[in-house]
């Protein structure tokens, strides 16, 4: 009996244009880095700005990854996500202030232990706050986007006011741990120690999230739920429980991002999360809602572009990211790496 012919397209059947189209989102970052090198001219300045842009992008990715997964899996537009950034920053910085002897010591072990405890406290509190937020505010408005926007913005305002009540209305200026201050010099370029740490943390977190989503059962359920939730539920999985877990994890990641951004800026305010939401939403949109890889690429593009443009033409830095989002959406209206949902 003759076997049926295999009609699946081979590598040779795929045109060069199609292969380039699929690879282009991943090529945008090296292309931007090369363009930045030629535009800036001075290699040392370019290297400093590139590290700064990567650090900024990694921190934005940490905040945006939870938001994009929540939207992709739960179809929830959560404008209250910025509140978790602010709360995480205040909780983490409060812990660092309380551990002043550790942060002021010239010991990397004590410094990093203080940062770890601050991050753990921030993620625990914001994760718990995220659970309450989902149960009380988000759950009643599932499937109603306009109501979601209204109630989550209201939740953001309430939490910001609670921060004013607990910590006061003034900005809180902070110092980084002693061993994370200053910079190291490489090839004539000064690179801040903390920014290098932020790049490392962001890269490790992205790899960990990618492995969890692709190589674990819970990751498979999350990805399947993003693409076809009703089918996953028909197979007997309690997708609602997964919803809650993803929302809590996304809130905890926002808290981590808040601590890191506070140390990056060396000042925290109640409204810092609200201001960051502009960049977070830009990253989630240009990456493709529901796509962690897209959010990662989008965040690095945003960080690098803002640093390059701020150096070359400071007045254009404020609009550079809006221009980036407009250009990418004109090219790919659903974002660079959108999650294809089942109809």
TrEMBL record:
Membrane topology: Multi-pass membrane protein
Keywords noted in UniProt: Amino-acid transport, Cell membrane, Membrane, Transmembrane, Transmembrane helix, Transport
Primary localisation category: membrane
Record bears the keyword Amino-acid biosynthesis: no
Protein name: High-affinity branched-chain amino acid transport system permease protein LivH
Localization terms from the record: Cell membrane
GO terms for cellular component: plasma membrane
TM regions (residue ranges): 20-40, 46-71, 83-102, 108-133, 145-167, 194-213, 241-264, 276-304, 316-333
GO molecular function term, any single one: transmembrane transporter activity
Gene Ontology biological process terms in this record: amino acid transport
Gene designation: livH_2
Assigned protein family: Belongs to the binding-protein-dependent transport system permease family. LivHM subfamily.
Presence of keyword Calcium: no
